[in-house]
Write a structure and sequence with these properties.
By secondary structure, this protein is α+β, with helices and mostly antiparallel strands. It has helices at about 15-25, 35-40, 90-105, 120-135, 170-185, 195-200; strands spanning about 1-5, 45-55, 55-65, 70-80, 105-110, 135-140, 155-160, 170, 205. Strands 1-2-3-4-5-7-6 form a seven-stranded mixed sheet, with helices on both faces. It is globular and about 50 Å long.
């Protein structure tokens, strides 16, 4: 049985292990600083989840509710190396997504894009396929421009949506979500030119695939 705990303080058991796995699991270009994570932990809109099995730390997830809880963004999720390939990722995502969507009906997920050839393409494709199997869908035609969180630019990213049986979303809704994420998660202006660039060629009704 997977035990999920929401952290509210860096002094709680599991936070140091979360930081270690966070550092090991994500490239530097995608990682926020430890001081930023400390600030996020004390922001009521953020959720830091630590997963344990039989009292052993096995993974974590970090997410934020945005736009008045209209949508949540799953920023990071990882399972400890020694506990992978055991179905824990699926179990962790199911529990976390259920808790987030209880408050926010739409859940957005940032994931590295697999559209560029390279040594990481196979692993990127596997990660995206994992979320597809859990019910998340890619927002067709959207090239997600994730703002930088470190000294180097992040790799190409995709944005997936988990929203029940919904197969389409409106461009107006997507614009609102993107603006909320830019402002609330990345401290960027709501009129950032990148938002318009992402939306420019999209139709008024956007397919999830």
């Amino acid at each position: 049985m997977l035990e999920l705990t929401q952290l509210r303080s860096a002094a709680e058991a599991g936070f140091d292990q979360l930081i270690q796995l966070y550092t090991d699991a994500f490239p530097a270009s995608e990682r926020k600083s430890t001081s930023t994570l400390h600030r996020m932990l004390h922001d009521a809109s953020y959720r830091f989840f630590v997963a344990k099995r039989e009292e052993t730390f096995v993974g974590f997830a970090i997410a934020r509710h945005c736009a008045g809880n209209e949508v949540a963004l799953l920023e990071y999720m990882a399972v400890s190396p020694g506990h992978r390939e055991q179905g824990l990722g699926r179990e962790l995502y199911k529990v976390v997504a259920g808790m987030l969507r209880h408050t926010s009906p739409a859940l957005l997920i940032e994931v590295e894009s697999d559209h560029l050839p390279g040594p990481e393409q196979a692993s990127q494709a596997r990660r995206k396929a994992f979320y597809h199997r859990q019910g998340a869908r890619q927002i067709a035609g959207l090239h997600w421009l994730m703002p930088a969180v470190a000294d180097t630019e992040p790799p190409p990213m995709d944005l997936l949506l988990h929203s029940g049986t919904t197969s389409m979303i409106s461009k107006t809704t997507l614009r609102h979500w993107l603006q909320s994420i830019y402002v609330e998660v990345y401290d960027q202006p709501a009129n950032d030119a990148r938002i318009q660039a992402m939306l420019a060629l999209l139709p008024d009704s956007i397919l999830l695939r």
